[in-house]
Amino acid sequence: MTQHREAHAAAPAPPAHDHGPGHAPHASHEGHGTGTGHSHGPTDAPSHGHSHGDSHSHSHGDGAGHDWGRLAPLLERQAEVAGTAYREAAAWLGTLVPASGVRRLLDVGSGPGVVTTLLAEAFPYAEAVAVDATPELLERARARAEAQGLGHRVTTLRAELPADNAALGEADLLWAGNSLHHIGDQRAAIADLAEALRPGGLIALVEGGLSPRHLPRDTGIGRPGLEARLDAEHADAFARMRDELPGSTREPDDWRALFVAAGLTPAGTRTFLVDVPAPVPQVVRELAVTHFGRLREGLGDRLGAEDRATLDRLLDPADAQSLHHRTDLFHLTAHTVHTARKG
Q1: pLDDT tens digits for range 163-172
Q2: Where exactly are the structural domains of the chain?
Q3: 1-210+252-273+335-343 fold
Q4: N or C of the chain: less Cβ packing under 10 Å?
Q5: What is the pLDDT of residues 79-130, one digit of tens each?
């Protein structure tokens, strides 16, 4: 699974998702795997489960078929844009489980390790393990940790979930960012992850939240409400992705109930906002261009002719009203973190 998982809304469309423990913990998105909401599906980023990546598009196994040299920087930028929200989430987790009591933490579906390093900073006594199925992303996670002076505490583990659950070892804190929805049987996946928790340990799932928004309802071109219609198409594609996963089992997204079924005690749910108002910095503008480009590519003919034409204009650098030049472009999304304690 990959953190991608932050990268959800920014990935290509093949319904296989950007990540997931079901894949690998392929696993981004940071998340993340990046910054975008949770989204996986045609707009997710590959999963490795990544991304998180605000972006997910998933592949299984090694992430074959994805150009990780190109996608990894995207997953990193997405997660970095959402960095403040993830730091706030990590600080909240520190109120639920004492930092001094966290000696080993797992970032399942870590992608390039942006969130792994944030967690390592928040829990300074812990060995932080980035878990993903994609070697290229784990290499970037190692390099990031070294660059931030955390190489002595951040390690990596290549694993494909659920097949490699036993390889995870024990943990006092387990973070799975936008990766669980890449596993067909989410109920069984939570039960498996619960097995890795030590008594008193905490699990934190990043699932749901709010889809990213970048444009006003009326952009001045095409029919107003473009992003709402894109959301609807993405939801359908996400459902198809879920249906096609191995062992796919339909479950309501009632994470509290799934925690209880796994013998865990719910410890609280909070949502963290990512708000970059206009005018946005260049990195956010570039992410928006990538996001809408992947939507255009992934949703393709499922969109009406007018919306396709609008997307083409938004993506055309020569158009004065494109994403490349608009002064009303912003980035707004939210990530929801569900937690539960063992024993």
Answers
A1: 898 999 999 9
A2: 1-210+252-273+335-343
A3: Rossmann fold (3.40.50)
A4: C
A5: 889 999 999 999 999 999 999 999 999 999 999 999 999 999 999 999 999 9
